[in-house]
Amino acid sequence: MDLRQLRYFCAVAKHGSISVAAQSVHIAQPALTRQIQSLEDDLGTRLLERTTRGVKLTDAGIQLLEDAGKLLDDASAAKERAQRAGRGESGHLSIALPVMQNLAPKIAEVLKKYRKEVPGVGITLHHLLSDVQLGQIAEGRLDAGFLLFRPPDDPDFEGIPVFSDRMLLAYPADWKWPRGKGPKVLKDLQDLEFIWLPRTAAPAWHDRLIHCFFDAGFIPRTAVHGVDAASMLTLVAAGMGCTILPEGARRIAPETVAFMPLADLTIRQDWELVWRRDRCSSVLQRFISVVSSSRSALRQSS
């Protein structure tokens, strides 16, 4: 007994005629008759009785018709679920966002678009530093993450660029610079208290900053450390020194923090959506597609 035979049987039962049923399912009448006979042989019982007006169901046929309807409905639902899964329209995603909250509105727009296009996928969001994200993606605990500093030569990871932020000097707003004497380049910060990020918090970013500072001839005078961009912003707001933060931090900075560009501060924070190359499911592929189509809007807002 297979689904095709059940469909043929249901058609005969619906129309009460093998000839009419054959037309409705688009096969020849003798072929349909053979399929019904094969089904009866398989079940070991008669399903139909021939009459002068066509056919009618036996008791076995009445029972099979009830069960066949359920089986065919279940098969149709299973087919639809499989097709939706294949299109990445069902399942669950575990995604990580950066700790810096100024990026959340941009990513929220992407998630809004994704939910509109793919309403059947559940999403769990985490706020994690880039290095933590990479570790959890590698372990399979995260499907993907929006992060910085993906190892460029690591074949285990794949990613697409999402948006980029230039870096600015962030300093207490009540710092007064003599007219025309404000800092223009990194070296002008030499005698100022500088809030620094320990290398353990973000090794790759720390090293990029160090190289930028070295090229500019600047050695920061550090007395206070933050653990991430948000904590460094808080320390600047408290008047404890200046630091380097992405331009997007302006959106969440209090009035006690001011920002300015420096001529030789040319590095940028380049954000990517990153995933493990060998764990790209259909649902993740669909998410990547939505993120990719949203990149121009994200760049305009950065």
From TrEMBL:
InterPro entries in alphabetical order: LysR_HTH_N, LysR_subst-bd, WH-like_DNA-bd_sf, WH_DNA-bd_sf
Full protein name: Putative LysR family transcriptional regulator
PROSITE patterns: HTH_LYSR (PS50931)
Similarity field: Belongs to the LysR transcriptional regulatory family.
Highest taxon in the source lineage: Bacteria
GO molecular function, one term: DNA-binding transcription factor activity
Pfam families named among the record's database cross-references: HTH_1, LysR_substrate
UniProt keywords, alphabetically: DNA-binding, Plasmid, Transcription, Transcription regulation
Cross-referenced CDD domains: PBP2_LTTR_aromatics_like
A single cellular component GO annotation: protein-DNA complex
Lineage per the UniProt record: Bacteria, Pseudomonadati, Pseudomonadota, Betaproteobacteria, Burkholderiales
